[in-house]
Amino acid sequence: MGDGCSLNSNNNGSDNDNINKSCSINAIGGSMTKKKTKKKKSGGKRKKMTVEQILAARYVNEWVFLDSNSASTASSVDDFGVQSHTKFSDKVVFELHSHSICSDGFLSPSVLVERAHRNGVKVLALTDHDTMSGIPEALEAAHKFGIRIIPGVEISTIFSPRGESESEEPVHILAYYSSCGPTKLEELENCLANIRDGRYIRAKNIVSKLNNLKMPLKWEHVARIAGNGVAPGRLHVARAMVEAGHVENLKQAFNRYLYDGGPAYSTGNELLAEEAVELICRTGGVAALAHPWALKNPVAVIRRLKDAGLHGIEVYRSDGKLAMTWQTPMNF
Ligand SMILES: [Zn+2]
């Protein structure tokens, strides 16, 4: 993204964004500017790090291994500029997009942390949809397993068109905070609470649309799957549809009924995408665009959000493959 805040995730969980992802993100502190540098020849020398990258890598390394005695023994640097410990021998693995049962994941925050730890993750961002309620439990578990938590949240927003070349679509913005959390917690929490209220309205609308489509799905069933106090999402509706035998699997539920703009699709109280980016910046967070490969019009969205203060974009999809590469250089 031009200014050294790229987000390089490598989620190899499910192919659905909403399902827990429990794998690795291999980098932090890299920069899209590296694309402007000369292409590496095959078998050629490793690209030299800039002074800023070395400094950033050192800070990250020291932070990740603060509790160990070997913070100064780092000896090698990976492609993304993150130093590896001789003692640990692995890369510093980041997972920057994960969901727990506090939104539509399948694991409790503590079990998610344990799973991440087992998979070699050293830094985990918990980014539940529109809530940070799982963060305290994740922090406690992370302490036990000696890994770092980045307090995060994935905010539901709508991109509103300005010109004819743009179209309305849902956009998810990831927010990352320091270990101190948001600087204006009340303001952030009020916005998130409003969006969560909208998720109930939205899920009820989806159920009634399905009922109108002659699918006798019950709201209570969706609410039961979401769990007590958890704002429902499309994945909860899809799971209820599968359980009730109306569709064969989650993919079918989304492909036939729940996809963006689909016959049972509905919106709630989402923020405008730019408002969410500004909110994240105002509350001391780092804003990153989630799964841009799912967007109808990613260029327009990224341009507009970059102007609003967006720091980075997610670049790997759930199967671990790079999802989006720019064919031409973009001028943000
Ligand atoms: Zn998402």
Automatic annotation (TrEMBL):
Superkingdom of the source species: Eukaryota
Give the Pfam families listed for this entry.
PHP
- What's the source species for this entry? Nelumbo nucifera
**What is the protein name stated in its UniProt record?**
Polymerase/histidinol phosphatase N-terminal domain-containing protein
Q: Where is the Polymerase/histidinol phosphatase N-terminal domain?
A: 94-159
GO MF terms on file? catalytic activity
